[in-house]
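hi! just following up on the protien thing from before. the input was this:
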Amino acid sequence: MEATALSTRMQKRLASRVSLLALTTLISTIALILMGSIVRVTGHGLGCPDWPLCYGQPIPPFLVGAWMEFTHRLIGLIASVQIVALGWIGLRRYRYHAWLKGSGIALLVLLAIQIPLGGLHVILEIPPETGLIHTAIALAIVGLVALMFALLHPATVALRKQATTFMQDRRFLRWLTVGTVLLYLLLLTGSLVTRLGASLACPSWPFCGVPREEWSTLVWIQVLHRYTAYATGGLLLVLAAYVLRRAPSVGWRRFAYGLFLVLLAQFTLGVLNVLLRIPMTTRALHLTVGSTLWVLVVILWVVVHPGIPDVVQDNEA
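and the predicted 3d structure came back as:
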């Protein structure tokens, strides 16, 4: 009996540490995206003109741009170590759980691609093509970390136990899946707009403000992003209202309110980018808040998806 009790306590302690790792990894990846946004909008993407060193040395010279890019790389190193640890845990400790094991494998593979891709992006002097791929992989990594967090953290596990109403609503699940896919594509079109310099191709809001016969490629890209944002934002707003109306607990109501607030913040930042002519602050925050919205939507999708089995700890197996 004592040995069993000791084993149970050890398993609970280990599960607590894994859930904490998932949370801190999620925070680190969002911080990495924020720092990457700051580096990009301040024009310091080549603050360190070489890779993996900076000006040929492990510690950069005392230049603002160099230290901004070096800080970005340092946060990336911390996040990478956490991602490797979380991926390995998913692959080994939760190998019986297809979603966690698959996420662990995907994290390790994507990170193995993302790190040299970041170096190539610098060596090629930050072309938009590699930048877009870099963003796409980064968002996929964040989504996978959010998926593992949703299955492992006690707060989201508690939400999942109360999600029977949502799990049984096939229409809600179908539209939530559509919204999740649209949000990922929206964030990619936003990255494309920024990297191609199309942020002010449409100088007005909510409409473009450019005569149709004068639309260039950059205007079409901006219009694609803008109307994808309208459709995605409207759909997510309806879904958040549905969750709030059918919320079975205080935790669910708080989650719905949080989703509302992040949606509102992202919408406001998008409008301010146009009206204020893309100031650095709103540009940096726009992708960061968008990534936070991506995390919340992925968590919601995982928590209410009936096809994803619950995680059974070793002492419960």
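The CA atoms of residues 37 and 80 lie 18 Å apart.
The two ends are 17 Å apart (CA to CA).
cheers
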